[in-house]
Amino acid sequence: xxxxxxxxxxxxxxxxxxxxxxxxxxxxxxxxxxxxxxxxxxxxxxxxxxxxxxxxxxxxxxxxxxxxxxxxxxxxxxxxxxxxxxxxxxxxxxxxxxxxxxxxxxxxxxxxxxxxxxxxxxxxxxxxxxxxxxxxxxxxxxxxxxxxxxxxxxxxxxxxxxxxxxxxxxxxxxxxxxxxxxxxxxxxxxxxxxxxxxxxxxxxxxxxxxxxxxxxxxxxxxxxxxxxxxxxxxxxxxxxxxxxxxxxxxxxxxxxxxxxxxxxxxxxxxxxxxxxxxxxxxxxxxxxxxxxxxxxxxxxxxxxxxxxxxxxxxxxxxxxxxxxxxxxxxxxxxxxxxxxxxxxxxxxxxxxxxxxxxxxxxxxxxxxxxxxxxxxxxxxxxxxxxxxxxxxxxxxxxxxxxxxxxxxxxxxxxxxxxxx
Length: 420
Hints:
Blueprint: E1 6-12, H1 19-27, E2 30-32, E3 39-41, E4 48-54, H2 66-76, E5 83-91, H3 98-112, E6 120-126, E7 134-141, E8 145-146, E9 149-150, E10 154-161, E11 167-170, H4 172-179, E12 184-185, E13 187-191, E14 194-198, H5 200-203, E15 210-211, E16 218-222, H6 231-249, H7 261-264, H8 275-292, H9 301-340, H10 351-388, H11 394-419
Antiparallel strand pairs: 1-5, 2-3, 4-6, 5-7, 6-7, 8-9, 10-11, 10-12, 10-16, 13-14, 13-15
Helix pairs in contact: 1-2
């Protein structure tokens, strides 16, 4: 099963790290840091399969020496918390042969970094020694360079204006040429609590104003965009395409995706990173179990959790494959059934069936008509009886109301007697 890994971090002096020490460890070499005099000897490190330095066309050839390159980095970066290098670690497909893995790393480093003007020091590792954890470390200085060496990370650009009011930005070297054409730097001026950005000529028209700062209006312009936060996502996507292309070239059907399971919309649980410490502990436990002739069991919670996650994901994958096979078979059967069944025609009705159906419908209509007629007759009779009933006289109405009141009083007296 192909795996994808691509992580990026910054090597910083503020974190107590040294670019010389990092380079020595990645390449399994012995290097001396000229800045502090420390010797970093990692020549006994195992698992380093290949290492080399890739330079852009405009870089000096002396940087092909690893000690020269990284000691110049340490000398150029003077801050106590300086960022020294950017390190990338990516997994290399174990489906490739050793020569193919080296060539794959070389192409990836060239495409991702060297083509953008970066110097890249990379090393291919097989930490476990079994060919299933092959990965590449890439160290890149953060500064641009030319034939003479490293350049500044950024330059100051000034806001300048001409007499027509046109405005642009210019470096110190560019301003020397623009100054002869009548361009002036812009400064911040103040009058009371009001501030304005004006040239010296424009400030003469604002009576009483004073320059608020001796420095001209300026900002830093970075010479490269390597620290752009969106670069990592772009590099991850590009590397994913490279890895899939390499797998396709060797005839492997495995494919990888740099997106998370959630972004892919896949019902899977991501495994947790184990790291070299956990893997070392588990390798030791595996060797001990093999020596005793017993079954290996994970001794760390992280490895046990990942084993459970792998089992769950494998079960989900098996279910999805079964469902896909069933749906494919159903689709094939439906297609075969459509090919075998002739086009359906409207069924011809037998005359006897037509007559029977018409008779049933007529009977239903007759019953409904009879019901409506009976209801209409009943309502007509009720209206006629109400009209023919003679009206009551006033004496009859009075006697009726009196009898009703008398019956009501008798009922009340009877109820009182019962209550006693």
